[in-house]
Amino acid sequence: MKSYQSLKEQFEMLYHMKHADAILSWDEAVMMPNGGANARQHALSSLRGLSHEKMCSPLMRDTLKSAKEEGLSSAWDIANLRLMEKQYLHATCLPNKLVKALSHATLEAEHKWRTYRAENNWQAFQPYLEKVIGLVKEKAIRLSDTFSLSPYDALLDEFSPGLNTRVLSPLFDTLKEALPTLVEQVLNKQKPLLPFNPPFAIEKQAALGQELMGLIGFDFSRGRLDVSHHPFCGGVSEDVRITTRYDEKEFMTSLMGVCHETGHAMYEFGLPADYLSQPVGQAPCMSIHESQSLLVEMGLCRSNAFIKLLLPKLVKTFGAQPTFSLENLRDHYLNVSPGLIRVDADELTYPLHIILRYELEKRLIEDDLNVDALPALWDEGMKKYFNLSTATDNKNGVMQDVHWPSGAFGYFPAYTIGALMAAQLYEAMEGELGSINQLIDEQRFDVIMAWLRKNIHGYGARYTFDELMRKATGKPLDTHAFLNHVKKRYL
Amino acid sequence: MKSYQSLKEQFEMLYHMKHADAILSWDEAVMMPNGGANARQHALSSLRGLSHEKMCSPLMRDTLKSAKEEGLSSAWDIANLRLMEKQYLHATCLPNKLVKALSHATLEAEHKWRTYRAENNWQAFQPYLEKVIGLVKEKAIRLSDTFSLSPYDALLDEFSPGLNTRVLSPLFDTLKEALPTLVEQVLNKQKPLLPFNPPFAIEKQAALGQELMGLIGFDFSRGRLDVSHHPFCGGVSEDVRITTRYDEKEFMTSLMGVCHETGHAMYEFGLPADYLSQPVGQAPCMSIHESQSLLVEMGLCRSNAFIKLLLPKLVKTFGAQPTFSLENLRDHYLNVSPGLIRVDADELTYPLHIILRYELEKRLIEDDLNVDALPALWDEGMKKYFNLSTATDNKNGVMQDVHWPSGAFGYFPAYTIGALMAAQLYEAMEGELGSINQLIDEQRFDVIMAWLRKNIHGYGARYTFDELMRKATGKPLDTHAFLNHVKKRYL
Q1: Can you tell me the distance from the alpha carbon of A158 to that of B214, in angstroms, rounded to the nearest whole number?
Q2: Cβ contact B236–A47 (<8 Å)
């Protein structure tokens, strides 16, 4: 156990570096004045370089080798050692030159993306994206060799260990078959929305957001709510920093955004305390993370029971309004509206945005799809899934997301896998606990969170998402629960 | 130059680690929820351990050695290399065991100090302080051997390079001779203060504080003002974070605190941009730092001209009050009031608090003064300098400051050396620029700051405080300017 102990210490140190990185990154998004950006970039890059150096050190290599010969008995330790080795292989299989080139190319492409997206200038942007994709393919091939996965599966595995196209494609095929019809049915029966009366003061939105966080179980002695341009859940499990953004003209986005990020936060709070500093104690998988935020946002906080809780709070916070009614509030929060922009999409059309990206990025990585074909293929996909066209509106088409220029290929599917997991977990939870709507009615979020902690949060990275789903729900991930849920909710 | 280039890169990386440390420490004091404390301590301690490891590495040793043989030509580079070597020697001359023991003992003593100070329990606190002092003496002897300084001078040199008892003692002797009589004279002529009418809303104090910062020249694109329990100037030169604290019952502390910290911030902003990541580009000396905050606070912001600027702003912010008059405001801001507590002391009595501490800590380090003699000696000193007694009130006597339990011996003199420097720099600046009061009248803080940048800030750590004073004022540091200033202001 001596080598394994030494490994644990080395990984604990890496965890402390991640702590620094997470808080500095939060500060950058939430607190930092603009003039500090350059110095912060350099500081973060040194910190990451140092972590990488420690991870790739001969000490790490040698202790890993001898720890594997020691023979561990605890299942936690065995899983931990397996994850340590995976992280080591991941860090060492990519040549430094490639890592640097990728880091440089993505920084440049993100920067150009900001300019050229605003100008709707695909021509100028394309070579930067091409460069990123070229390097991502090189990386995918290295990972593919190391982990014996196909190149695109190797990228998927980075964000969601165990996820692959063999699992994904049939799930997505079912969804893309079912959803367009469903959306049409919903649009045919959907009533027009009655508008609310702005303004909704920001301080009041913030206070109400914090009240909802407290209701769900957010521990304010271990976290904060702040404001950033793009909402996120950051910080560390011991000190979770979630953010939202406010608009005086409407309260819906900030409140539901807070509920979503609180779902991420509850997962972080619930990770196994004894292993937090170890790979096995940390959140392993973007899909599971997203399942937790969506379960809270979509499953719990857009439910009838929650809207019933919310209504009197809205009246107390903003004063009564003629259109503050259960029915109208529900209509607003469950409005289905196909549109060009993924981040504005509703629960029902969101997966179609993801499927479009999945199909294209898979071909980019594995089939040598030419980057210059993207705008036309995007338009084609939008027509097929949404009856909408982006034509030459690339700003709101292929150029809308920062993910690709920033090199994140294999990430998008996590959003929809998370949605499927959330629905399937909700169903299993209801099977054990009885009506979730009733628990929300009684404000027993503690009971719901205890179930999630026991079945998901508390396992950390011990299982892949597939093993976790089988343990928690008795079956592998499929689309039934999600499709049942949306049919029940929207039809 | 190859080795020197490599050294510069190594020190740049250490600077990035300091960046991370500074922002994490700021966050800890300003943003962090209580529950995050333990994880943060561990993260900071790993970060510092890693920096120490890099500083003490064979690579550092070897490149230092070969860089010294390369022969540098630029004065900046020569100064930089000298400082690099000093930092290396400082880090390597202390055995790891001692560093760890000191870190452990000071953490423990600070922790006990919080409890036992509140309980006025000297008996229980004494052994923890003794342990710290024992280890500080060990450290002082090591530093003394390495840098050929007496043990206490070696500690002084850590905070204010070049400061020593040969310089300090005569300056302090003059002050302790002159100040008690001066204080008595002021007390005899001082009028009673007319109270202001609270409350003074915190948001309004904060807005006015930011207005004053802007007036002095604080660059909000490179810094922030926030709230913390103890006001400080933190962050990094590219992103300076100052803090203050508010009390609705009075506005004077927060406003003057903001001016003080803005003085520190202006120094950080003015450091030489080309060398920021190198030892020679960073603020080298607590005494110089304190001179800049005191020059702004005491020299500029408690002046008649500034109070004339402030008055209409106060009226605009809080509404008119019968006692908002130039004379009464001035009386408040220049009130002399001998008391037990250093941090509450005015400009005139503050040095006496420092001298008492200096005399005691010097004996603790160099003369084997017994720790159990401190309460009686403290009481004796208070009687001698202030006509006040602490008797058994150790909470407001020897136990009032956290500096000693936290191991900071040799730090206190910086406060008073800073005050002497501030007065002497003010005098020299007035000799060159003409009436400073008139510049303040005309709101030409840019002219004042340009002089400070040229004569102090822009030199970074290139000179010791003594060299800097000779360059900026034409003579070594003495007490004349300070005593002239306080006589003119208070008599």
Answers
A1: 47
A2: no
Buried b (16+ CB within 10 A) or exposed e, B25-52: bbbbbbbbbebbeebbebbbebbeebbb
In the block, residue with structure tokens 């500034």: B306
Residue type, A157: D
CA A283 to chain centre: 11
Which among A20, A32, A239 is the nearest to B239, CB-wise? A32
Across the range A428-434, mean pLDDT stands at 98
Q: How many CB atoms lie within 10 A of CB A114?
A: 11
Spatial separation of the C-alpha atoms in residues B435 and A151, rounded to whole Å: 73
Per the annotation, the verdict on B261 as an active-site residue is yes
Measured distance CA(A358)–CA(A137) in Å, rounded: 15
The CA-atom distances, in angstroms, between B442 and each of B21, B296, B431 are 40, 16, 18
Helices A445-455 and A252-270 sit at what angle, rounded to 10 degrees? 50
Q: Where are the beta strands (DSSP E) in A29-122?
A: none
- Does A181 contact chain B (CB < 8 Å)? no
Which pTM was predicted?
Answer: 0.95
Structure tokens at A381: 């996909």
CA distances from B328 to B309, B315, B322 (A): 14, 14, 10
Cα B477 to Cα B463: distance, rounded to the nearest angstrom? 14
Distance from CA of A220 to the nearest CA of B (A): 7
CB-based contact B360:B342 (threshold 8 Å): no
d(C-alpha A326, C-alpha A307), whole Å? 7
Residue-wise pLDDT for A132-180, tens only, equals 999 999 999 999 999 999 999 999 999 999 999 999 999 999 999 999 9
To test the contact with chain A by mutation, choose from B19, B52, B57 the residue with the greatest count of A C-beta atoms within 10 A, namely B19
Partner-chain contact B47 A239, CB within 8 Å = no
Could you report the per-residue pLDDT of A10-22, keeping only the tens digit for each? 999 999 999 999 9
**By CB neighbour count within 10 A (0-12 exposed, 13-18 middle, 19+ buried), where does A34 fall?**
exposed
